[in-house]
């Protein structure tokens, strides 16, 4: 008998690892936000108290009031959560428990024989929704311009503390621990060999996969390798003009990444505001619209991710990935070298990994692709381009 669980937001439940049942079962799951929660959201949006505009009401001081007001009105009057919910539930979702933590994931098997399993990992402020448009091309390549031998079985987990992998029951969920958890998940699903892909925080988890290099991992593909200058002037002699442009892009990102400092140091402080104000949550997630520089995402894609954080009340717990990673990283220590087969896709409107720095910390980069279109959320912006990169990278590793 199939058991289906509807999601009810959990805002106060706390469990300890000691009282966990250590249940290794995999249970079907359905997303079904209660109407009362949707009505509450719409009421809050209607009663939004907007901040006074900063001078110029542009992005110089942060998210403009006019932008927030426009998106709040669209969210309240036009955005259709139920339509998105129907799309979400068109693919199979599951829950399982690993290391005491509830883990939510999508699992879609290909009809093609010898499909390679792949685990796709999102970051902040994204979610499993990032990969929804890639599921068909990955699992059914023949119907989407590929070959049968390009097929994947797709596993898309929600990172612990994000979305329906909540509530977060304890600290310590660093990117390294999450990579080890994904290895447990893939083996629990019966996969002896698999690949990994990630973007943003998922790229950190993807590199940790390489450092862990568990039995069965064939390779890890990421959108970013966060490798920076070491301070050696000789390094700059190797840089091309494009590399220097990438350095400028990095500096521009760091100048606006106040969220990173806050989430790395005091995530629970900002959590209270994000749990109480949907407009505040929307503004805080400004990375998803490129800090105002623009990207290829639609308003529905932006609001779908923000709404998922809202309904799951997971903005504060999601922020803790930054906090945990900051506490396991010693910036003065030499970087540990990743020796696993690694692929990188660099998109023009994103943090652009610089190969000379990346090679220093990743000894086995066997695939490198650069794109003139797409950005930080390439899986949503240009899903077919990213799909083709995954096909190419893993074709030699199957």
UniProtKB/TrEMBL annotation:
Biased composition (Low complexity): 1-13
Gene Ontology biological process terms from the UniProt entry: epoxide metabolic process
One Pfam family it belongs to: EHN
Domain Epoxide hydrolase N-terminal as annotated: residue spans: 26-131
Gene Ontology terms for molecular function: epoxide hydrolase activity
Coiled coil residues, start to end: none
Region Disordered: start-end pairs: 1-23
Keywords: Aromatic hydrocarbons catabolism, Hydrolase
InterPro entries on file: AB_hydrolase_fold, Epox_hydrolase-like, Epoxide_hydro_N, Epoxide_hydrolase
Taxonomy, superkingdom: Bacteria
Positions annotated as active site in the UniProt record: 200, 322, 376
Record-stated family: Belongs to the peptidase S33 family.
Name of the protein this chain belongs to: Epoxide hydrolase
Organism expressing this protein natively: Microbacterium protaetiae
Phylogenetic lineage: Bacteria, Bacillati, Actinomycetota, Actinomycetes, Micrococcales
